[in-house]
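SUBJECT: A protein chain and its fold
Encoding: whole-number codes for local backbone shapes
Chain under study, with its fold:
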Amino acid sequence: MRIGDAVYNLDGLPFRSDQTAQRMLDLLSGETGKHYQMESYPEGGFVIRLESAIASPLKREMQEPQGYELPDVSQGMINIPANHGHPNRQKSESSVIQPRDYHLRPAVLRTNLFSLGIMGFAAFLMLMPDTLLAEALELIHIQPHQLGGWMLRIQQAMTGTGAILLVTLWLVLVWQRAGALYRITGFGVEARLGIIAHQTVGLRFQDIRSMSIRQSVPERLLGVGMLEFNSAGTDGAPVQFRQIAKPARVLQLVKERMAGMPSAD
């Protein structure tokens, strides 16, 4: 439903979740070819507005009737003020552009030091098999000429084994990093898991009731940990940022974002 230059839900109220508002934004952009932006509503929820209307408040002031305000939805009804033409129209807080999103990935290099060590050995095995084989033969007191043609075969086997091991471990680390994306938006937090099949769990800032950092002793030494956000209801799944670097800084950023949001109570 369009009211002024803003798009609301079919019941005339703001969209209750950012996922629903995002789907409507994508639909409008695809159908009209225009650029829209999602905004938070002061009373809670989200509305959609053209980017041109957001970037040019003076143009909106000239086009809209003076005295027009966004609908009052606090009582579940749409009330249009009757004092059209009043020169002192109050600006809606929803015209403020939201801060940019932060994208986080798991710190797989810090949490897979053993795998990195194996990768280093695999690289040495692939690049310098002759040196490693010579050291091994010296330990067991065998001269290289005693192996004959097997010397070359063993070196080739070592090179192939090192290459396979190095590529396999690297692909495992890339898969772990690409399989999780954590977002801090202007409206809440979101965790998206999976590469082929996605599972997304999110919470608005207004719905977050507790936050905690979980770290083992090795994780504290490495500067990584898990950040967990819980809602007030028991039916909502917690949002977990796993294996992120500097979780205390991330938690402080979320607290700063929450301080500027209206209360859900």
